[in-house]
Amino acid sequence: MSLLEVSGLTVRFGRRQVVAIDDVSFTLGEQERLGIIGESGSGKTVTALALMGLLPENAAVTGSVRVRGQETLGLGEAEYAKLRGDTLSMVFQEPMTALDPTMRVGRQVAEVLLLHARNTSGNSRQRVIEMLRRVGLADAERIADSYPHQLSGGQRQRVCVAMALINSPDLVICDEPTTALDVTVQARVLKVLDEMLDAEHTACLFISHDLAVVSQVCSHVLVMLDGRIVESGPIHRIFATPSHPYTKGLVATAQLDKVAPGSPLPTVADFYTRAGATR
Amino acid sequence: MRKIQLYTGLALIALVIAAGLVSLVWTPFDPIRVTADRLLDPGWPHLLGTDAMGIDIISRLLIGARYCLIVGIISVSLAAIAGVPMGVLAGLSGARSGWVDEVVMRVNDVVYAFPALLLAMLLAAVAGASTVTAMVAIGVATIPAFARVARAATLEVAASDFVLAARAAGTTKWSIAVRHVFPNIAPVVGVQASVGFAMAILAEAALSYLGLGTPRGTPTWGGMLRDAQDVWYTQPVQALWPGLAIALAVLGFNLLGDGLRDVLDPRLREVR
To answer: Of A63, A243, B196, B246, whose CB neighbour count within 10 A is largest?
Structure first.
């Protein structure tokens, strides 16, 4: 039995039933890492929110999502809340707004721990400090007593990673966790994430628009376009022999170092043009 | 310079609080006992003179400060304790249980549409005119203001990323209300409370003036204003002192409200 089985997942929004994602199916095993790649509006984030049961109330979700065999679509809010943060957790794109500005960071991490605590012994602060240290925050004591606005973007995203992993979940969904960070901080956060996933034996669904970033974390990848999965497979296979024209474009733009000097840089549009596009 | 309003407001409020505290232990003259020195002009030993009953005006003003603060605190607390949870409930009810939002806010609209003065007259007719009826009437009449402000702020907080992140961590709706919504709407509610306090002082003075609030004999600023009316044509200065006291206290709380809004505005917080 796989950790996560998604089949025929379709999400429609609003009264006009606009289709956001269409018949998405994939499976994810224990400790596997799957990347979802695609451009803005391709349905990556909607997929993530659908798995977490966090879509807004005007979304109609059909299909099936099974976590360890348990169907989660249609679960009540209370039952879903037990899964979230414990079995499933999530790291958001924007670390500047994902933390409550009125609450000390340490307490926010501790809350996630206490929400799902099996033993309520009073050493939560120690666990929090230890976790903050493990995600590479050297000055963990001080960070724990800081408010979010006192921390940098990279520090905040590390805190978010600590929050997501403190209960050793089975699956972490990372929704573009490094998009808001600069390149050097991005590399460090990715490294920490990689190590933590290994240490906690946690599977990961990593959403990004950047094939190069996904290739640092994941072994397999799904390519999404306009709400559908257009290609999937091991990442080295995708790089070596992309079959869909859109994927070919992505691979070409992710390997700019292979472009011959003097020749123009490739764009996705060189390989794939949408029906009705102007170019 | 932005904080000058805040500090001016705080200074005026401190003055009122000091007057109220001093009146607990000391007043220059007996604030209740009638004497023969009626309608004295400002001078020595009665610095602001005496009223038609021969009672020292400063002494009555000091006691009046106490009543003004008590009325403000109780009626604003009443309105906030009832109004803020209602607003948060309405704001968090969401699309699927939107009827909760509708019911709560329409009830508030009805209360808002009901004149506060009429409410005070009704209460005074039922329970007798007293400081308590005035406070309850003012409190109930200002519940909708708090509910509306709290609802608007809640809608904003509920749409924020950190609420989504808290839900993703398994926090339930009611825990989110307590841990994330209340602390984040507190600045807005604080500003409303400060402005509401000024309104409550004015309303209580008006009710006492009309005889619907604190009964005659107890020194309140509104009551003093009413007593001064009897001698308006011969001793107009009698109305000046309680009027000035009310004006300064109201100004103080309004300035505090404006100052707090400037300091606590989340859009300015990052810049600071």
So the answer is: B196
